């Protein structure tokens, strides 16, 4: 399939790029800086150098699937803004849009957001804006009926690491066999590519955990 | 004050424009079509001819307050998209942003959205997308901490009419002295201009009802 990845040089984007290439897909990375794109993804990588907010729906129509892996940890409001820009650009288009969310918009056992727990932690002020905007990202997606979207949430610990074994979930926080909530970038990328190849979660959010 | 109105030729925009002019403010209407702008607002109206999605934060910095009165009833997803575009453009800017919402994102007595009731009505499918997107608009605003925003919700019946007497509320649906939920465009415009001149609801949503 022809796959575009926005934010291809980030931790998630890179893992998705490599997983998609390994599976034989035709992959293009959207990057802001060509030199960094080549450094991270290889000198033979297909790149489109473009600011995320300049990407148009017409430009995305060439792809079967476009993954929004844009992630700004210091200005997390930009993650929401890129998502809403891409939604606006792809309303009534055919391209399938895939969004990467954090654990904040997953649900706890009582049905409240994981964000509602995270914000009670002592040092939350320093980093809680990212899961807070993640909740809004999910709310925007859930209101979207005219884009062919799918979203995946990571787990509380989301770190760079290889594809090993992973388990899918739907809307609730998961726990790996060690009792903790974690997933590697490699396992998340594996789950995303499985879903791209064999869609189960159309217009829905799901999640993945390390086994 | 220097006030910009986006969607100035619509029912709300026109009422806001006239109320602001009557109070002696320096008002500019953002319109898509200059001829229609002059027809609706008068040949001496100050106009900026611009697509809402092309408006930039830098362009809005010349105003003290900008009111988003853009309202597309046939493609209500565009109301959300204009709101998110304006939020993105005005993050960390000084301009005060005022958003006009419907009754859908008001609360019922039990704390659920008015939208949750509206969607149960027999003919809801034909028109419920607009209050549905209205809920998402409020959710986006409530997650926004870096824009100086205020929002006002109308009531269930929101019709063109003069400024008479009006009563303010906060987040709940209101009922006029006849027991029904309604507000005229003139009364809503009066409440908006009162709030612009004497701010009480910073980073908050409030509502207004006919007396």
Features:
alpha/beta; two-stranded parallel sheet; 211 residues
Structure commentary:
The structure is a homodimer of 211-residue chains. The first copy, chain A, has 211 residues and is an alpha/beta fold. Chain A has one domain: 3-Layer(aba) Sandwich (Rossmann fold), CATH 3.40.50.720. In chain A, 33% of the residues lie in helices and 23% in strands. Chain A contains 7 helices and 10 strands. Chain A has helices at residues 11-22, 34-41, 57-60, 77-90, 114-118, 129-142, 185-197; strands at 2-6, 26-31, 46-49, 65-68, 96-101, 148-153, 157-159, 166-169, 182-184, 204-210. In chain A, the strands form 2 sheets. An 8-stranded mixed sheet of chain A has the order 3-2-1-4-5-6-10-8, sandwiched between helices. Chain A has a two-stranded parallel sheet with strand order 7-9. In chain A, helix 1 crosses helix 7 and helix 4 packs parallel to helix 6. The longest helix of chain A has 14 residues, at 77-90. Chain A is globular. The two termini of chain A are 28 Å apart. The relative contact order of chain A is 0.15. The mean pLDDT of chain A is 97. Chain A binds chain B through residues 53, 77, 80-81, 84-85, 87-88, 91, 129, 132-133, 135-136, 139-140, 143-146, and chain B through 53, 77, 80-81, 84-85, 87-88, 91, 129, 132-133, 135-136, 139-140, 143-146.
